[in-house]
Amino acid sequence: GAGVSQSPSNKVTEKGKDVELRCDPISGHTALYWYRQSLGQGLEFLIYFQGNSAPDKSGLPSDRFSAERTGGSVSTLTIQRTQQEDSAVYLCASSLEWRGAYEQYFGPGTRLTVT
Amino acid sequence: AQRVTQPEKLLSVFKGAPVELKCNYSYSGSPELFWYVQYSRQRLQLLLRHISRESIKGFTADLNKGETSFHLKKPFAQEEDSAMYYCALPEKGSGGGADGLTFGKGTHLIIQP
């Protein structure tokens, strides 16, 4: 079956531009997670969705970051006015339910480069 | 706040030698711990979780609450074990459940022929 997919796989953007990253979770998975993987910070949890709801947005690095999920499926992570420190690989994962014991299935990531 | 520490950024061993990847954690309550692995050019995937008490690809990990450790071990390393290994535990959410995962910084395991 299809795994988690993300698009685009690579994105190069100029500082100050907005970018939108997309995640398609595994069908039927109610929980969806966004992470950021960078050289200096390792893997950093950003936000999760239980259905279409994101109960806690405190993990987002700044108010330039926002995320939404519609129809209990596709999610988009939007970064406004990108900065060079936003350069990283953005990973999406999904799991059957949102409780911690469930395995998270990761997508291939979107590599974002801000020039 | 919970924290996961993997003290070794890089670990290089010879094929056939034993491997131990260290993981220490801080967490209030009973933790659920995981090891995730990322092979070259592949996506991050679950290797094993402590509640399953299983051995995957010859790897085992025992939760030691006294030492707050969850070290990953394999008695005889193989070249295909070369990868990045991440120890992780669930973040405690405000609603009492778990949000995402808190990951350690990862250990790059290199198995030399």
Task: Determine the fraction of residues in helical runs of chain A and give it as a percent range.
Answer: under 10%
Q: Residue ranges of chain B: pLDDT <50 for 5 or more in a row?
A: none
- What is the C-alpha radius of gyration of chain B, as a whole number of Å? 14 Å
Count of runs of 4 or more consecutive helical residues of chain B: 0
Average pLDDT of chain B works out at: 90
Query: Which geometry of chain B do the CA atoms define?
Result: globular
Rg of chain A, nearest Å: 13 Å
Q: What about the largest sheet of chain B?
A: 6 strands, mixed
Structural class of chain A: mainly beta
First and last CA, distance of chain A: 37 Å
Amount of helix of chain B = under 10%
Instruction: Indicate the mean pLDDT of chain A.
Output: 92
Assembly form of the protein: heterodimer
**H/E order of the elements of chain A?**
EEEEEEEEEE
Please provide the ordered H/E string of secondary-structure elements of chain B.
Answer: EEEEEEEEEEE
Strand-residue proportion of chain B: over 45%
Number of helices of chain A: 0
Query: Approximately how much beta-strand content do the residues of chain A carry?
Result: over 45%
Total number of β-strand segments of chain B? 11
What features would you highlight for this structure?
heterodimer, A: 115 residues, mainly beta, six-stranded mixed sheet, four-stranded antiparallel sheet, 0% helix, globular, B: 113 residues, three-stranded antiparallel sheet, 11 strands, 45% strand
SSE order and pairing:
The complex is a heterodimer of chains A (115) and B (113).
Chain A (H helix, E strand, L loop, with lengths): L4 E3 L2 E4 L5 E6 L6 E8 L3 E9 L14 E5 L5 E5 L8 E8 L9 E2 L3 E5 L1
Parallel strand pairs in A: 2-10
Antiparallel strand pairs in A: 1-3, 3-7, 4-5, 4-8, 6-7, 8-9, 8-10
Chain B lengths: L2 E3 L4 E5 L4 E3 L2 E3 L7 E5 L6 E5 L10 E2 L10 E3 L8 E10 L5 E6 L3 E6 L1
Parallel strand pairs in B: 2-11
Antiparallel strand pairs in B: 1-4, 3-8, 5-6, 5-9, 7-8, 9-10, 9-11
